[in-house]
Description:
Largest sheet: none
Oligomer: single chain
Distance between the termini: 34 Å
Radius of gyration: 20 Å
Strand content: under 5%
Structural class: mainly alpha
Amino acid sequence: xxxxxxxxxxxxxxxxxxxxxxxxxxxxxxxxxxxxxxxxxxxxxxxxxxxxxxxxxxxxxxxxxxxxxxxxxxxxxxxxxxxxxxxxxxxxxxxxxxxxxxxxxxxxxxxxxxxxxxxxxxxxxxxxxxxxxxxxxxxxxxxxxxxxxxxxxxxxxxxxxxxxxxxxxxxxxxxxxxxxxxxxxxxxxxxxxxxxxxxxxxxxxxxxxxxxxxxxxxxxxxxxx
Length: 225
């Protein structure tokens, strides 16, 4: 992926990048503009966009030191913050609606098994995001601004950072293995498809934090010392 590619061509490589540009505030309708032109007009650091795009489009992508140096930690945090809102306000709400529709014919006990698991998972995600919003992101912004912050480091974040996509696999297995026969198969497929999409996206989200945010801020921390 290169800056001089047309944005439309780049999105054609991987449709998942449509949600990436949405979270970065890049609107559709960019015509024949290049990636660099589109990012500039949207006020987005192009190198940051390419880092994120490569994580989605390239399996096992490992960014170079040069790419991370050119990227913006502030823009990366802005993207991660927008991702949190996207997951909570859109993806999880949509899943909640899909499960409500899917489980409508079930008994109260049958409904409770899946909805309780989903509710507990959502609470775990909210707590995970709240920690990053309240502690990690303000810290990154401070360090990116050249300020030394006592009492916290990205090492602390790295030691406590856990994956939030694993339980979705458990939920998917519950639906596939134990869904009552009275449930509509097409509704089940819709719910499972959305689960798989969210699980894959959250996996990329975790990779961005582990493979880009942490090493990027580690370098910034060294400059602040």
